[in-house]
């Protein structure tokens, strides 16, 4: 979203039927054609302000969230990843 998430949600939230979500560290290399910055981290492990995002979408979004996660080298196993996703849901979505 290149830093425009708030603007995008303000203008298009009512039209969105599904979102794929993950975290990242932003555009480190300043080249929008290069996706190496898009780490697909578990939400909460990057720079996205998830509290504000969830507060905004809870008001009027009833579509799906699809977690698009790429396991990182420090990830132990799928159970750990699922546990981290469950923790995110408990913290921000319930």
Describe the structure.
- By secondary structure, the chain is mainly alpha-helical.
- It has one domain.
- 35% of the residues lie in helices and 9% in strands.
- A two-stranded parallel sheet has the order 1-2.
- The two termini are 25 Å apart.
- The mean pLDDT is 81.
Helices, strands, pairings?
Elements: H1 5-12, E1 18-21, H2 50-58, E2 64-67, H3 78-93
Parallel strand pairs: 1-2
Shape: globular
Q: Please trace the helix and strand order, writing H or E for each element.
A: HEHEH
- Helix percent reads 25-40%
Quaternary structure classification: single chain
> Total number of β-strand segments?
2
Helix/strand structural class: mainly alpha
Strand order of the largest sheet: 1-2
What gap, in angstroms, lies between the N and C termini?
A: 25 Å
Strand content: 5-15%
Main pleated-sheet profile = 2 strands, parallel
Compute the number of structural domains. 1
Mean pLDDT figure: 81
Quick take:
By secondary structure, the chain is mainly alpha-helical.
List the main descriptive attributes of the protein structure presented here.
94 residues; mainly alpha; two-stranded parallel ribbon; 9% strand; globular
């Amino acid at each position: 979203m290149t830093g425009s998430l708030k603007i995008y949600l303000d203008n298009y939230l009512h039209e969105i039927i599904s979102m794929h979500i993950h975290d990242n560290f932003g555009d480190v290399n300043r080249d929008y054609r290069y996706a190496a910055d898009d780490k697909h981290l578990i939400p909460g492990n990057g720079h996205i302000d998830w509290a504000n995002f969830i507060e905004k979408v809870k008001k009027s979004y009833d579509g799906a969230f699809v977690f698009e996660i790429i396991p990182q080298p420090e990830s132990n196993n799928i159970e750990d990843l699922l546990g981290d996703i469950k923790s995110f849901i408990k913290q921000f979505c319930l």
